Amino acid sequence: MHLVIDIGNTFIKTAEFKGKKMISLAKSPLKDFNVPMLTAKGKTYQSAIISSVIGDHPELDEYLLKVSHKLIHFGKNTSIPLKNLYKTPETLGKDRLAMAAGAAMMFQGRNILIVDAGTCLTFDFVSQNSEYQGGSIHPGLMMRFKSLNSFTARLPLIRFQEDYFRLTGQSTEESILSGVQYGMVAEINSVISDYKKHYGKVKIILTGGDSAYLSKYLKSPIIADNFFLLKCLYKILLFNA
């Protein structure tokens, strides 16, 4: 059995894998997480991988070294079957690199666009030659709501509404919802369309916390997988076995 840990800006996710299957998953707000939440399981692992976008975690490392025979800290020096063409690799987020590498292993010989709708909305492109070309970073859904409230004098802070998808809002609240939610879908559809015009056939992967909502309205055929990063980290772990 293998353990995968992803520490993001907002949540920490842990997953256990056996063979080709994810057999357990846990998700906790980062502010609420502590190592005893893991130690309570009392399990040992053949190997483990940890990826963190917010720095080191000595207490967690100490625990993982005790319960796993091999521990990998994913980063720019981790061996991956991907050529990184990013001009500033030292600034590339670990989550973006991990998903690019994992996608290259899962869909060999294909052009791949990974759309991650989390705290930020990111697009990452991997060519059919397993080359990471780069991508783009956009404000995420909640970031858009908060910025409209923070940078104006009178616009209220509106919460995301799962069932709202309209072009034209008929009140200030609805206009914000239309601008943020409808606008974000239109933005994603436009970027996907541009990649397809430029590269031809492109495999589209949609992931991240807002993927369930967005997937209902995207025009292109997609693979929606909210656990894509965990699966990619597992692929990288096996590649380094």
Q: Looking at the structure, what is the overall shape?
A: globular
Spatial order of the strands in the main sheet? Answer: 6-9-8-7-10-11
Number of helices: 7
Which topology of the largest domain does CATH recognise? Answer: Nucleotidyltransferase, domain 5
CATH superfamily of the largest domain: ATPase, nucleotide binding domain
Radius of gyration: 19 Å
CATH architecture of the largest domain: 2-Layer Sandwich
Unreliable segments of 5+ consecutive residues: none
Number of strands: 11
Helix % is 25-40%
Strand content: 25-35%
Order of helices and strands: EEEHEHEEHEEEHHEHEH
| Average pLDDT | 93
Q: What is the level 1 CATH name of the largest domain?
A: Alpha Beta
Described by strand count, sense and barrel closure, the largest sheet is: 6 strands, mixed
Number of discrete domains: 2
Beginning-to-end CA distance, first to last residue: 13 Å
Helix-and-strand structural type? alpha/beta
General description of the model:
The chain has 241 residues and is an alpha/beta fold. The protein has two domains: 2-73, Nucleotidyltransferase, domain 5 (2-Layer Sandwich), CATH 3.30.420.40; 83-141 and 174-234, Nucleotidyltransferase, domain 5, CATH 3.30.420.40. The protein contains seven helices and eleven strands. It has helices at 36-39, 58-67, 94-106, 141-150, 172-199, 211-215, 228-239; strands at 2-7, 11-18, 21-29, 47-52, 71-73, 83-84, 112-117, 120-126, 131-139, 203-207, 223-224. The strands form two sheets. Strands 6-9-8-7-10-11 form a six-stranded mixed β-sheet, sandwiched between helices. Helix 3 (94-106) crosses helix 7 (228-239) and helix 4 (141-150) crosses helix 5 (172-199). It is globular. The model has no long low-confidence stretch (mean pLDDT 93).
